[in-house]
Amino acid sequence: MTDVGGVPVLRAPANRVSPQAVPFWTVSALLGDAVLVVAAVLVWLLVPGLPGWAGLVVLLVAVAAVAHVVLMPRIRYRVHRWEVTDTAVHTREGWIGRQTRIAPISRVQTVDSRQGALMRLFGLASITVTTASAAGPITVDCLDADTARRVVAQLTAITAATEDDAT
Amino acid sequence: MIPEPGEGYVRLSPRKLLLDPVKAVGQMVVPVAIALIGISRSDTKFWPIILPLAVFGPLVLGALPWLTTHYRLTATQIQVRSGVLNKTTSTAPLDRVRSVDLEASLLHRVLGLQKVQIGTGVDDDRITLDALAAPDAQALRTTLLTRRAVADQQAATPPVDQPADQPADQSLGLLPDQQSRPVAPPPPAPPAPAVALARIDWSWLRFAPFSLGRLVLLVGGLGVLSQFADELPIWNEETATSAWEWLTQFAVVAIVLVLAVGALTLWLVVSVAGYVLQWWDFRLVREHGSLHLTSGLVTTRSITVEEAKVRGVELTEPVLMRLVGGAELSTLATGVENGVTQVLPPCPREVAVAVGEAVLDRPGPLTGRLVAHGPKAHRRAWFRQLRNALDVIVLLALGWWWFDLTWWWLAAIGATLLALAAAAGEASYRHLGHALAGDHLVVGGGTFARIRTVLETDGIIGWVVSQSWWQRRIGLADLTATTAAGTERVLVRDVRLDVAVALADRATPGLLTDFVEPDRVPA
Predict the structure, then answer these.
(1) What is the pLDDT of residues A80-92, one digit of tens each?
(2) What is the interface pTM, i.e. ipTM, of the complex?
(3) Whole-model pTM?
(4) Do B461 and A1 touch (CB under 8 A)?
């Protein structure tokens, strides 16, 4: 398959996301997991006559939640990367799995940026670049808001210059 | 007659005045009947008001669309104006017309009408003219498609002064008024003659029973019937039990046989009848730079797909069809609301391959060998199916434990499931593969059905390399080519990561160059 001896390796995109992403992911994971753990504990306390292993299950859920809250944001920060060149958008994301996405800028149709309430608190914004394929949207999560604005402006300028219908 | 470009608006066919009221009556017959019954029970003094309303309402409502819908062609656009209070005008630039589909239900055909649907590409809504007289519909289709070809040509080749090269007969035949001007732009080439790619061969009818698409309909129909069976008087408990005893005593085998033969016969009749209804007078023609499909016995369909928008084809061989050497072919196109268009009925594999190659304009991709994905992918194919089977078995076991049933049955079902899963795993690995045939990406896939997808590399608008935790441990990845055509993604499953990167790099030269480090020592 290879042309010139070496094994082609896709290098990681150049830029990390904003360091503020770590506390943001921690807080959002905490909010989600807390609901789950509290619900599990309530069931365990309030429903009478549960077998002994039910307590073990609740404990496991709690441990998994703590691990998720502590580890996920850090791993994710190491994995998430992005890069916009003159010709392509390239991102890597995931924390257990990995997804690498590449789309040529000439095929980009829309550029959206999004900032939820919690993201605003941490000064973050996400960019979504869509192409004519439903399988192709590329999201760069958790850039700091200024970078996001700059990238959106850059992408919009480039895509406005291309003319065809990008299919 | 369809209007010439620049002429004013014209109405749809006057025969629509017959079509719409009949349809309107059909739609309103139930509510009107209910209303009439309700009223007749309460009071009869409203009859003089209600009856005319019930009769003339549909007629007026049916006639309104004809009175209010007009269309016209300009030099660059087709415009359709409709509506009573809210006037809407739909316009489509002629060079954006991607497809012109004609359809005629039985009612349409009795009246000699056809429904025209004009697709314009990126957005999903189509312009519908329901209905034109059949010859007008044909004429409109030809006009729109040739005009689009002309517009495309003029856009593609800027006018150059080359009257000397131009064959005189073309200019004479097409644009006599331009003879007076020495520096006229070159007139468009005459449209290429229609080339027939395929037509129905009734020996293909042998594939009908092996194509299970219609089975869903049949089962659905039987489900509806069983609703009525519940109402039958024989279905009370005593008759049922006594009948059951009679059955077990005498004729279990015979009854099962009869049922099986009956079901098989029913299936034969339904599948063959469905095939005949759908594919009667099937023709696939290439003309005006489009693929043009017509078929149908009762409801006729006419589907047009612009070839420039066809990015690839998909050859599907469902497991039963493969036993008898049959296949189905679909085109993957952009800018039509359903990008996957089945262009051939179930037919012999060679025919599907030949038509596929004609559509692709190159031999090879549909028959060539694929690069296998290796033993790790083989293991994963097995494990994936076995895990699915195990999931089902665990669920079943829970059920068994809950209801305290005999374990023998579970063991038998479990063994069957595992055997099936092993077969599915092996089959799905054998179907797996990829290749790059010139400017086409070729991907093999499918679990029980063998599916081969061929996609023009020009139509690839991005890549996704996705690895689950397990895949990362063994160095495999799922490579997805994103595209605007067909189902908008083509998946190369469980391919080695470096092979995936090399494939993507070669399929879309330049796109990955910035991101690939080629000089790594092989691991």
Answers:
(1) 999 988 888 899 9
(2) 0.87
(3) 0.72
(4) no
